[in-house]
């Protein structure tokens, strides 16, 4: 909620009536107002005047910007066809009108026949894995964790990446729940948990099987649930029996006693709630890991109870009537993959149109992306709020509004409410919302399709037509509305949206895609630390920073100050093997790239792992690189998800390079 005085935003706070957030803001959004007024905000359209990548621009008028874009787009469509345009939309905003899943742009691109853009950078691998088991990525209402008696925080850093859940975990604890964090890093969340299992990265599927092995040893499987609500139990049981706790200990690097004791707890604690988010699926076997974790409540029968089951995402429950408007396409078009920008930005692409994305900082294989963006015949447009590393490669830059300046409808990133975003102030300078930019562009191109000119309020009405219990006036007044589901919400009480209507341990849909029919462990590329140790390599994990939101806020001076210098965390064992001491500058490298950072030696990371947070702007680091210089552009087992936490790196003192050179 924004307080406005004389047309200027002077205060920002969370809405205390919102049942999930209760008005709490994170360290980043606490500075959002200051961020909207930052000195480096882009306020006017600009055109490139220096070489590509130099970041040298000159202010131009909107008329000139729109005319240039309209002319170039029309010429590309005529000469090469619409598919030569790649509308590269990111997760900068998740609003349904202005952002990710939203209406902005899609109709426009379809009318031009542009390539479709597959926005799979974040959560697709895990979502697909869950779909094979449950038929959907939707699961528990996170608020029901307050009723759980055992909580597994599995590959998720709640206190950093989704802190609103923590209140519900605390409520559960007050009622006696036991909380376990499963993470190769002792994160701030793991520090607060009752127990921490520092698992070897990419081996979570094996742990899921091992825990179920113990459940079977205990005779605690829910036979009635297995018989009536699941498919493929005999095959899956055979799979579980391959993974004795001792074998699981070997693969996961966890003590056998810990696996056994957690298995016993799981066997006898109802309801058990599992929160597994995106961290553990950014691996080669990430989709399969989520698929297996989703099998656990099928065996324990936890879906019977509020507070039982698995929670990954709530987006499946969002009732908005999103229409992808394929009817506007002139014919079939190809799909380009967000996680494969370096590979797919070849000569066939003549225009890259980036909005709400910062691929130079956030996408895998930074160095190859940079090479691609330097291509002289590529027309690159970036719609942005700030002069990011990606902006530096633009031919035309279009200034964009921020949340307090535009209208939007949001669905929670992990809760069961819809939120209204009413613009509180006029945009500064000449900033325009994404929807307004595309309306003006459509006009500049003389496009006649009427739906290209729908107003934001009309778009909101259309989206809300999917939610009959929520009306526009009411949500505009209240700011939020609960999705129309019962409270407490127990999903799958009426069956699973799978082909069999049951929870599927075996999936014909998976088999049809060339994946294992039975849910099974698929190792990540770096799952064998032994191999790493022999070759002197470490597994690089690059999770969320506490101070930045992907690359957003990573130019805020105060948050930069708090986040300190870029650091890589390694275990004392691995530091000793390399003769490193804390604070020393090290070179981290692999065949894809290299960067320098301070080393922090700590038993917070397990041996064999190097951890570095994501999100830094390249131009604000000592050597113009962030960890994505080390991330290979390669696919997870499902959904072509990225492999951000699944790369080998080597680390050596930085001065070695100097002496060698
Ligand atoms: N502060 C902050 N919050 C954010 C974001 C941010 O950048 N900053 N980003 C937002 C976005 S877009 C997303 S998608 C989410 C992401 O947030 P999360 O879903 O929490 O994902 P990550 O931060 O990638 O990883 C979470 C944890 O998984 C661990 N992990 C890595 N590999 C493995 C593994 O193989 N097994 C297990 N068990 N654990 C593993 C990491 O060490 C990390 O602690 O956060 C959102 N919230
Ligand atoms: N190494 C590593 N890299 C990662 C991850 C990881 O775990 N490790 N996580 C990945 C994840 S989870 C995600 S979701 C992706 C995110 O990758 P991207 O989608 O590329 O997101 P950001 O880097 O946050 O860049 C978003 C940009 O959008 C701009 N923006 C925000 N709102 C608006 C708006 O309303 N209009 C316009 N025009 N622009 C806007 C912001 O200023 C920002 O520069 O990054 C991924 N990158
Ligand atoms: Mo994400």
TrEMBL record:
<dbReference type="Pfam" id="PF00384">
    <property type="entry name" value="Molybdopterin"/>
</dbReference>
<protein>
    <submittedName>
        <fullName>Molybdopterin containing oxidoreductase</fullName>
    </submittedName>
</protein>
<dbReference type="InterPro" id="IPR006657">
    <property type="entry name" value="MoPterin_dinucl-bd_dom"/>
</dbReference>
<dbReference type="InterPro" id="IPR009010">
    <property type="entry name" value="Asp_de-COase-like_dom_sf"/>
</dbReference>
<dbReference type="GO" id="GO:0016491">
    <property type="term" value="F:oxidoreductase activity"/>
</dbReference>
<dbReference type="GO" id="GO:0051536">
    <property type="term" value="F:iron-sulfur cluster binding"/>
</dbReference>
<keyword id="KW-0479">Metal-binding</keyword>
<dbReference type="GO" id="GO:0046872">
    <property type="term" value="F:metal ion binding"/>
</dbReference>
<comment type="similarity">
    <text>Belongs to the prokaryotic molybdopterin-containing oxidoreductase family.</text>
</comment>
<dbReference type="InterPro" id="IPR006656">
    <property type="entry name" value="Mopterin_OxRdtase"/>
</dbReference>
<dbReference type="Pfam" id="PF01568">
    <property type="entry name" value="Molydop_binding"/>
</dbReference>
<dbReference type="GO" id="GO:0043546">
    <property type="term" value="F:molybdopterin cofactor binding"/>
</dbReference>
<keyword id="KW-0408">Iron</keyword>
<dbReference type="InterPro" id="IPR006963">
    <property type="entry name" value="Mopterin_OxRdtase_4Fe-4S_dom"/>
</dbReference>
<dbReference type="InterPro" id="IPR050612">
    <property type="entry name" value="Prok_Mopterin_Oxidored"/>
</dbReference>
<feature type="domain" description="4Fe-4S Mo/W bis-MGD-type">
    <location>
        <begin position="1"/>
        <end position="40"/>
    </location>
</feature>
<keyword id="KW-0411">Iron-sulfur</keyword>
């Amino acid at each position: 909620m924004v307080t406005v005085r004389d047309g200027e935003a002077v205060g920002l706070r969370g809405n205390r009536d919102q049942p999930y957030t209760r008005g709490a803001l994170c360290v980043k959004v606490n500075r959002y107002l200051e961020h909207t007024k930052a000195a480096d905000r882009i306020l006017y359209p600009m055109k490139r005047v220096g070489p590509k990548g130099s970041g040298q621009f000159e202010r131009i008028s909107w008329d000139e910007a729109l005319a240039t874009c309209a002319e170039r787009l029309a010429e590309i469509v005529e000469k090469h066809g619409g598919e030569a345009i790649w509308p590269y939309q990111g997760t900068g905003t998740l609003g349904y009108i202005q952002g990710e899943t939203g209406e902005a742009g899609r109709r426009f691109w379809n009318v031009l026949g542009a390539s479709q853009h597959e926005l799979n950078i974040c959560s697709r691998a895990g979502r697909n894995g869950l779909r094979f088991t449950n038929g959907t990525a939707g699961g528990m209402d996170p608020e029901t964790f307050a009723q759980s008696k055992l909580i597994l925080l599995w590959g998720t850093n709640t206190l950093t990446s989704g802190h609103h859940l923590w209140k519900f975990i605390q409520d559960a604890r007050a009622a006696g729940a036991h909380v376990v964090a499963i993470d190769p890093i002792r994160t701030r969340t793991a520090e607060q948990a009752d127990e921490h299992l520092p698992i070897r990265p990419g081996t979570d599927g094996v742990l899921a099987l091992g825990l179920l092995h113990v459940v079977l040893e205990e005779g605690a499987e829910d036979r009635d649930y297995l018989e009536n609500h699941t498919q493929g139990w005999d095959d899956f049981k055979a799979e579980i029996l391959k993974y004795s706790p001792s074998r699981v200990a070997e693969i996961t690097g966890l003590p056998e006693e810990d696996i056994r004791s957690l298995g016993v707890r799981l066997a006898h604690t109802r309801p058990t709630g599992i929160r597994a988010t995106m961290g553990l699926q950014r691996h080669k076997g990430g989709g399969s890991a989520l698929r297996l974790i989703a099998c656990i409540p099928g065996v324990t029968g936890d879906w019977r109870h509020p507070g039982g089951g698995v929670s990954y995402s709530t987006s499946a429950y969002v009732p908005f009537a999103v229409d992808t408007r394929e009817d506007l396409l002139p014919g079939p078009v190809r799909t380009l993959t967000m996680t494969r920008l370096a590979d797919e930005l070849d000569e066939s692409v003549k225009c890259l149109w980036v909005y709400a994305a910062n691929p130079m900082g956030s996408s895998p294989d930074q160095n190859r992306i940079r090479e691609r963006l330097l291509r002289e015949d590529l027309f690159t447009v970036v719609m942005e709020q700030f002069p990011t590393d990606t902006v530096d490669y633009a031919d035309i830059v279009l200034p964009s509004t921020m949340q307090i300046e535009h209208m939007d409808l949001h669905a929670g990133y992990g809760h069961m409410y819809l939120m209204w975003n009413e613009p509180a102030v006029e945009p500064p300078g000449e900033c325009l919302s994404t929807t307004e930019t595309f309306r003006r562009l459509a006009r500049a191109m003389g496009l006649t399709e009427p739906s290209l000119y729908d107003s934001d309020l009309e778009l909101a009405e259309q989206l809300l037509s999917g939610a009959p219990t929520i009306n526009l006036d009411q949500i505009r007044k209240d700011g939020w509305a609960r999705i129309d589901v019962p409270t407490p919400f127990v999903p799958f009480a009426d069956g699973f949206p799978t082909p069999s209507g049951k929870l599927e341990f075996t999936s014909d849909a998976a088999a049809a895609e060339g994946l294992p029919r039975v849910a099974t462990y698929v190792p990540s590329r770096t799952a064998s630390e032994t191999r790493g140790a022999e070759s002197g390599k470490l597994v690089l994990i690059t999770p969320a920073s506490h101070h930045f939101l992907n690359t957003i806020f990573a130019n805020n001076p105060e948050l930069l100050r708090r986040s300190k210098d870029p650091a890589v965390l390694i275990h004392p064992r691995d530091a000793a093997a390399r003769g490193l001491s804390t604070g020393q500058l090290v070179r981290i490298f692999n065949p894809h790239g290299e960067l320098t950072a301070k080393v922090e030696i700590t038993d917070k990371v397990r041996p064999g792992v190097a951890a570095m947070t994501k999100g830094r702007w390249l131009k604000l680091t000592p050597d113009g690189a962030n960890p994505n210089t080390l991330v290979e552009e390669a696919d997870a087992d499902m959904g072509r998800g990225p492999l951000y936490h699944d790369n080998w790196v080597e680390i050596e003192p930085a001065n070695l390079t100097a002496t060698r050179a």
